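User: I'm new to structure prediction. If I give you an amino acid sequence, what do you actually give back? Let's try with this one:
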Amino acid sequence: MKTFQLFRQLALVAAVSMSTGAAWAELPEATMYKDPNCGCCSKWAEHMREAGFTVKEMPSREMARIKAQLGVPEALGSCHTAQVGKYVIEGHVPAADVKRLLAVQPAGARGLSAPGMPMGSPGMEGGIPDRYDVVQFNGDGGEAVFARH
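Assistant: Good question. You get back a string of structure tokens that encode the predicted 3D arrangement of the chain. For your 149 residues, that looks like this:
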């Protein structure tokens, strides 16, 4: 009986491991636009890679133009802008929030933003962490808190 229970537990662990690997393989590539001199942006990209995303870093001195083209509301701006699947991710949004956005696909959502550069957010570690919101912005101009950290 104990052998059967052990086998069942090992099968469950294997199934979870395989499904986690499959989920990572299905994550869309993130294309991140950043100022060539920004170090915290590369730290955010590394955070996303550790969470299973492939991240292509695109240095640009045209960040204001890129943000405008991608529909990032000016009030929600941060230092870097990424395209992940059909969504725009602005700033230091945690990978877990990006994954939840991809899974839930809220109606009307254009993307997520961690406005400014909150201390303690991915890529902004060090110092005293800020409490911050990740804001969902919609194509119709609407906004809502997506997550609180």
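You can read the tokens as a compact description of the fold. Here is one thing that stands out. The mean pLDDT is 87.
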